[in-house]
Amino acid sequence: MNSPELIKYQALVDELNHHARQYYVLDDPEISDGEYDKLYRQLLQFEKEHPEQVSFESPTQRVADAPLTHFEQIRHVVPMLSLGNVFTEEELHAFEQRITKRLQKETGESFSLVYAAEPKLDGLAVSIRYEQGILVQAATRGDGQIGENITVNIRTLPSVPLKLNTKQPPEVLEVRGEVVMLRSGFEAYNSWAEKHGEKVFANPRNAAAGSLRQLDPRKTAKRPLSFFAYSVGELVTEKHFGTHFEVLEWLATLGFQINQLNTLVKGLTGCSDFYHRIGQLRAQLDFDIDGVVYKVNDLSLQDTLGFVTKAPRWAIAHKFPAEEVTTVVEDIEVQVGRTGSITPVARLQAVTVGGVTVTNATLHNEAEIYRKDIRVGDTVFVRRAGDVIPEVVKVVKSKRPKNSQIFKMPTHCPVCNSLLFKEEGEAVLRCVNGMDCDAQRKESIKHFASRKAMDIEGLGDKLVDQLVDSGLIHTPADLYQLTEQQVAGLPRMAEKSAQNLLIGIENSKKSTLSRFLYALGIREVGEATALTLAQSMQTLENIMQADIDSLTALPDIGQVVSGHIIAYFKQPQNRTVISQLIGHGIQWPDIQKSDQNNQPLQGQTVVLTGKLNQMTRSDAKAALQQLGAKVTGSVSTNTDLLIAGENAGSKFTKAQSLGIKIVDEQWLIDTINQR
Ligand code: I6G
């Protein structure tokens, strides 16, 4: 392509991106659909003739043309926190009292606070990372520490810019927000799906979640998803912001969609008025919401307030009451979990609540049933809030049948009949028969195959039950010896499904050490612990041989978890299954060894503040991580070290008041050079 042609091509890319933004982000189209399609066809023609010149920004480049095998795990550099909740005006009042008191104590001043108020969208939280203005990664929230890499899917959303709309992009920007399927899009998608024999979704939230979890981005691209930005994670820029609202306004200029209903309010009255106004608008909105969010608008006050374990002190979600309906308890059964925990479950007369048909509700544990006095035959109120398992709120005593019986927990496991135990200080009863109990065996295999573990496509819960009941498998290792003939011979099993299952099993062999560890189902070893074990110890052999001292020396692993890990690897049958799995070809890439002896900041929590002169912030951060440090955004009692550049502000004073060691940029450079 000669250069005038290239210029014309780039202008066409820019023009199409501009119109897509007007349409999808600003809801203010400047041209008709037909005119847009005409320009798009011209672009396709150019690109067909000059494939070597295709720009990464071109709207044709949003959709990758090959499916993934599974989603890689990503640790969030800045954790994706959750929000505290309030349901009543009294709780909201207590929130404001708490934070104004704290601010007064910390600063000696009294405040009447301004809040940024916004509707709380009921979708999926994601984090989208830009480096030098280019979209490089997108991840789900996951458990807040570790999410899944959904970059190829997020790229297909027209409301997500592939390149930030600015000539001076920040070095790093992580934009956080919610992906939703608009109600209008949801209705249209479901009627299309019904006509074409595709899966119909129960509600827009499930539709958004299911669409982002598609391994084939070509399918995600067909789903009408929108992204609304609400905050930032890691941010490396020369720019300074005084308020949360300024950050949102900046995000809007960069090309992100910000909820039009966001506004600033004063004090409790402002919050409460906003809550009622949005509550009244709720039914008319084109997106589902489950409440509103208030955030202290002043960023320096946010800094002063800091965080509790997993949530900011300076923000709160004011939730709408969850829908409650009445139904009848037809039976109470107990379920045996993967680790033998016994959970009572109410079987209910089918009822629709929160847009979903509910037939079961958890009763948590024995004490909860007795406290609420729930009996078979009772009419009960059932609640389903967001994504959580439905629960029984209370019994309508006036409707209780005359001859109803108090529910009694069983003394023996309903599956293997062994005697149940309750450990001291625990609320739950347990079956301690381990893998000799068919229920625990099945649950362990389901966990092994699950999405965040070995991610075996095509192996649903019912199929695991069938495979165990028919005697085809006893352990996860047996999965890898199944033949198509065996699977196809199961009742109600189509040949195609049998083939798909074997492909899913084969694909799962390429895994990672952390997924494999998580899949083993060791008590209290969740995804984050599995990742810590894998990254710190690098090989399975090291982990299997680790003693209590080396395990408790790792971040966030205490005596109890270490005890479970050691006990697990001591059991000969567990070691046998592991060696069979590896013998069947399960493998993972080597983990890069970092020299622990050469990590002078190993295990330390470090905060960077102020302007650095000799290195960029992202280089400083990367260097600190290489030195073994965990880099966080705010100073607290957990901080070990503050690196203060020029004009360090409130973080400096806070670190001083907490007696935290403070060093300058030169100290960091000297430490790097001494390695
Ligand atoms: O503005 C928000 C909306 C929803 C949030 C948020 C959220 O969670 C679903 N979470 C956080 C941690 C923040 N803002 C800061």
Structure, described:
This protein folds into 6 domains: 3-61, Helix hairpin bin (Helix Hairpins); 114-319, DNA ligase/mRNA capping enzyme (D-amino Acid Aminotransferase, Chain A, domain 1, 2-Layer Sandwich); 324-422, OB fold (Dihydrolipoamide Acetyltransferase, E2P); 434-507, 5' to 3' exonuclease, C-terminal subdomain (DNA polymerase, domain 1, Orthogonal Bundle), CATH 1.10.150.20; 513-583, Orthogonal Bundle (DNA polymerase, domain 1); 596-673, 3-Layer(aba) Sandwich (Rossmann fold), CATH 3.40.50. It has 675 residues and is an alpha+beta fold. It is globular and about 75 Å long. The longest helix has 22 residues, at 3-24. It has 25 helices and 22 strands. The structure holds 8-methoxy-2,3-dimethylquinoxalin-5-ol.
